[in-house]
């Protein structure tokens, strides 16, 4: 019955269930592309796809900086803690890895948060405060967080401070990049971060829109935050499961050795990764057991009758447990 209920909400009658209005209210402090109207969103999505999927220069740049962060930061840091034999918060390490990579990808800046010192970084702390406040808004009644916002206390105070710090940083990066472009210092072929690309690329219907500081700020913000927590949680759970299932770890290592000429390689191309069938299956199994986003929220627009016989009124919150769905034999 759970399976049919979820199908009703997510597939058969999905037009009646969304989270757009609630999401827009929760994210109103951000006021970025995620909550923009459909016309702006479609133009922005087209520009994003053009950069991330259909541009050879961006693909080469992404591969180069990924190798740079893996070989220059992630592996040395993990080796350091292994030699010392000390415990380390793996989710923190992977979060720093993702943040450094996305900073290079989005704004061409390496914050170097992933080092053996594991330093505190103001921008990273601000992003955590923003995320924490938005999660709080999602689980608490609207009247409570709106009261905190009016009084500027609790998580709402942290949210306001975090957004101010982040905006100061991003607008400063945009101004610096504009100055560099005027001096022709950032047009080299090996420099193709999103900020630079959106500033200099022409020939699309969003070329004028992409020139504004506000649009560029939203692009940078989206790039820094997209899949941030879900990636960290997914990788952490995956590596924990491998550590507790040595037979699966052995099979993955054997598959890598069978498809890699140099056993010391720590970075693989997309073509090489396509050969790792068991690794792919293990990652999917990890996400089934421990989904990075364990809950999905939807709101009904109109009344509905679920297959279980339960009636759903308009403007009703529906909480779907993806964690439970992944462990349901019926599904």
Short descriptors:
15 helices; single chain; 63% helix; two-stranded antiparallel sheet; 3 domains; 331 residues; mainly alpha; Cytochrome p450; globular; three-stranded antiparallel beta sheet
Textual characterization of the structure:
Its cofactor is heme. The chain is mostly helical and 331 residues long. It folds into 3 domains: 2-22 and 294-326; 31-226, Cytochrome P450 (Cytochrome p450, Orthogonal Bundle), CATH 1.10.630; 230-289, no CATH class. The protein contains 15 helices and 5 strands. Strands 1-2-5 form a 3-stranded antiparallel sheet. The protein has a two-stranded antiparallel sheet with strand order 3-4. Strand 3 (304-305) and strand 4 form a beta hairpin. It starts with a helix and ends in a 5-residue tail after the last helix.
Layout: helices, strands, pairs:
Layout: H1 2-12, E1 17-18, H2 20-26, H3 38-52, H4 56-84, H5 90-107, H6 122-139, H7 142-151, H8 154-182, H9 194-200, H10 213-225, H11 228-244, H12 246-259, H13 270-273, H14 277-289, E2 295-300, E3 304-305, E4 311-312, E5 317-321, H15 322-326
Antiparallel strand pairs: 1-2, 2-5, 3-4
Helix pairs in contact: 4-5, 5-10, 5-11, 6-8, 7-8, 8-9, 8-10, 9-10, 11-14, 12-14
Structure in a nutshell:
This is Cytochrome P450. InterPro entries: Cyt_P450, Cyt_P450_sf. The protein has 331 residues and is mainly alpha-helical.
């Amino acid at each position: 019955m759970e399976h049919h209920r979820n199908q009703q909400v997510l597939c058969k009658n999905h037009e009646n269930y969304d989270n757009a209005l609630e999401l827009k209210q929760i994210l109103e402090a951000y006021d970025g592309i995620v909550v923009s109207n459909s016309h702006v969103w479609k133009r922005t999505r087209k520009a994003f796809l053009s950069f991330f999927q259909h541009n050879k220069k961006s693909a080469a740049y992404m591969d180069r900086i990924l190798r740079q962060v893996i070989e220059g930061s992630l592996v040395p840091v993990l080796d350091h803690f292994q030699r010392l034999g000390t415990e380390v918060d793996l989710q923190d390490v992977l979060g720093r890895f993702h943040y450094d990579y996305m900073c290079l990808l989005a704004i061409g800046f390496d914050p170097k948060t992933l080092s053996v010192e594991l330093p505190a970084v103001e921008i990273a702390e601000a992003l955590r405060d923003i995320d924490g406040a938005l999660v709080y808004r999602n689980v608490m009644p609207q009247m409570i967080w709106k009261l905190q916002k009016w009084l500027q206390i609790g998580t709402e105070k942290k949210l306001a401070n975090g957004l101010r710090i982040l905006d100061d940083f991003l607008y400063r990066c945009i101004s610096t990049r504009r100055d560099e472009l005027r001096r022709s210092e950032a047009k080299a072929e090996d420099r193709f971060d999103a900020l630079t690309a959106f500033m200099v690329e022409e020939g699309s219907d969003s070329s004028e829109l992409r020139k504004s500081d506000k649009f560029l700020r939203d692009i940078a913000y989206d790039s820094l935050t997209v899949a941030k927590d879900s990636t960290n949680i997914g990788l952490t759970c995956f590596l924990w499961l491998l550590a507790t299932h040595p037979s699966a770890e052995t099979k993955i290592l054997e598959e890598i050795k069978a498809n890699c000429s140099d056993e010391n390689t720590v970075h693989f191309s997309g073509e090489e990764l396509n050969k790792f069938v068991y690794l792919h299956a293990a990652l999917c199994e990890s996400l089934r057991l421990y989904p990075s986003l364990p809950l999905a929220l939807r709101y009904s627009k109109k009344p509905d009758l679920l297959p279980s016989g339960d009636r759903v009124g308009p403007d009703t919150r529906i909480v779907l447990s993806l964690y439970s769905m992944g462990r349901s034999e019926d599904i």
